[in-house]
């Protein structure tokens, strides 16, 4: 097994100007549960996940990605990672004052995003998602745009021990995405080549194919802008339906993401120009330059600027 300390993805935190519209969308349409409020900040959980929350929304003058949070097993692991990251620290390891508490710290990654590492966060009471209940079970993965994706891939490999699962490449433009894992799940993180650093998309796991399709249909009927899907990727073998949230962040419903035997797995390089690579089923709208650009997102205003909370 790989020698790593990070165990899983915890939550993705967003800051937005139209706070009420964003919260209403994630509650009423996307299917998350509001679990806590704190003066212009809302914490949203997935009913099937033991994480206290998987999305945090904060009211702000400018849209930004506040942070991405990963879990480790023990406070000692928190301290070990903090010591290894040194000058990149935003905060020293200590008590976390958010739902579930815990012990952790924050730092800037190579592109200037704020990353949080935590342990000892108390588990939330959660439940089994029922048949045809089309709400997220958990946060599946997050994909980040980088103007130098290979350097960002190498940084996460060297400093946080993420492993490369697969690569998407194109015969004319080179590598376009690196799928990175911190556990047997095919990817908890992916790095996409983009014109600037930003959130590419956040993905939410559904119970199964039926629930994934019912959720996709609910959003389409509600007039939410669908970018791409429904379909099934080759890398990761997962389903996909991508939508815009009210502030233009791309979010995904998915299910059946591949679990790997890490002792025997060898990374593939998939040719992104082949239609079956982007969508094995052939049911999604074609992947083209316009669809790709939709997930470049706005330039992130939070780079090398720590969120206020």
Task: Spell out the blueprint of helices and strands.
Elements (H helix, E strand, L loop, with lengths): L5 E11 L2 H11 L3 E5 L3 E5 L9 E5 L4 E9 L2 H11 L3 E7 L7 E6 L5 E6 L18 E9 L2 H12 L2 E8 L3 E8 L7 E5 L4 E8 L3 H13 L4 E7 L6 E6 L5 E5 L13 E4 L3 H4 L10 H6 L15
Parallel strand pairs: 1-4, 5-8, 9-12, 10-17, 13-16
Antiparallel strand pairs: 1-5, 2-3, 3-4, 6-7, 7-8, 9-13, 10-11, 11-12, 14-15, 15-16
Written description of the protein model:
This is Catechol-2,3-dioxygenase. This protein is an alpha/beta fold. The protein folds into 2 domains: 6-119, Roll (2,3-Dihydroxybiphenyl 1,2-Dioxygenase, domain 1), CATH 3.10.180.10; 138-294, Roll (2,3-Dihydroxybiphenyl 1,2-Dioxygenase, domain 1). The protein is 18% helix and 37% strand. The strands form 2 sheets. It has a 9-stranded mixed sheet. An 8-stranded mixed sheet has the order 2-3-4-1-5-8-7-6, with helices on one face.
Brief account:
Keywords: Dioxygenase, Oxidoreductase. This protein is of the alpha/beta class and 309 residues long.
Number of domains: 2
- Oligomeric state of the chains in view: single chain
Pick out the low-confidence regions.
none
Kindly state the number of beta strands. Answer: 17
* C-alpha-based Rg, rounded: 18 Å
Query: What are the secondary-structure elements, in order, as H or E?
Result: EHEEEEHEEEEHEEEEHEEEEHH
Tell me the name of the CATH class of the largest domain: Alpha Beta
- Treating each run of at least 4 consecutive H or I residues as one helix, how many helices? 6
